[in-house]
Design brief:
3-stranded antiparallel beta sheet, about 280 residues, 5 helices, single chain
């Protein structure tokens, strides 16, 4: 009996490695076909830098906590300003006053002193009437050349010292004691670094709890199974309340001005992103 063999020959080149479903069915219907071996390699899922798969959506969240406290530090600005015709003498006068007050402040451990601004400048008086100079004089010749000074003016020398202390009563009294050398020119209240750090430690726990609560609420509202933190950022903001220092005139006994500190709101914020995990 004659035997017939049906052989399906595959083309030598394969423009496409994958065959369609219809082609496979047709080939298997005819007979057994020798298919070329095709290596199949599983491709890893694309992941983000944090290790989450691309299918996990992210959500940005923020939370904050704040506390309002009284400012505990005062900085007094003392200044010495003199006017005259001799620039050198004016500078010497300001320097002597500043050195005397600085030495007195350094002797008190509750006071911190540092130098503020220091300036010497010529203040022109353009409103002073010009007196005509006699013809042929040196002043007249300079005016005619356009090289003469303005109608007049004076030299001004000004120096500042900044006195900082947590003892506001002592700082106020110090300003009164040295008012003959340097005058009180300004008052500024702040929150000390130590106080701020203590407050921020308390706010850190509150801010973290608020962030977690917000994340859990978002997961529940969006019907996900959980979350994983992708990134976190901390920030702090100090917000001094608007306050004008209250000062009273010094008495004959040189009592310091009555001053009262304001309040400051310390806020610690937390911003970040979370991965939303499926149920």
């Amino acid at each position: 009996m004659a035997r017939f063999f049906l052989e399906a020959r595959m083309p030598r080149t394969f423009p496409h490695t994958l065959l369609s479903k219809a082609t496979l069915i047709a080939m298997l219907t005819v007979g057994a076909v020798a298919l070329p071996a095709v290596a199949v390699q599983a491709q890893p899922a694309t992941t983000s830098p944090a290790g989450a798969t691309a299918s996990e959506p992210t959500l940005a969240l923020s939370a904050s906590a704040s506390e309002t406290v009284a400012q505990d530090t005062v900085t007094l600005t003392l200044n010495k300003e003199v006017r005259g015709d001799n620039q050198v003498e004016l500078s010497r006068s300001v320097n002597e006053a500043m050195n005397k007050v600085r030495d007195k402040a350094k002797a008190d451990k509750d006071l911190e002193v540092r130098t503020g601004s220091y300036q010497v400048w010529f203040e022109r008086d353009n409103n002073r009437p010009v007196q005509p100079a006699a013809a042929g004089t040196r002043a007249a010749n300079a005016a005619g050349d356009g090289k003469g000074e303005d109608a007049g003016g004076t030299w001004v020398a000004r120096g500042e010292l900044l006195i900082t202390s947590k003892n506001m009563e002592k700082a106020s009294q110090f300003a009164a004691d040295v008012d003959e050398q340097m005058a009180l020119d300004g008052i500024r209240f702040t929150l000390s670094r130590e106080a701020r750090e203590t407050i921020e430690k308390r706010l850190l726990a509150a801010t973290t709890k608020a962030f977690k609560t917000r994340a859990q609420e978002a997961v529940a509202a969006l019907e996900f199974g959980g979350y994983r933190i992708k990134s976190l950022r901390l920030g702090d903001v100090g917000q001094p309340e608007s306050y004008q220092p209250r000062m009273m005139a010094m008495s004959a006994a040189k009592a310091g001005p009555a001053i009262e500190a304001g309040k400051e709101t310390v806020t610690l914020s937390m911003e970040g992103e979370i991965f939303l995990l499926p149920k």
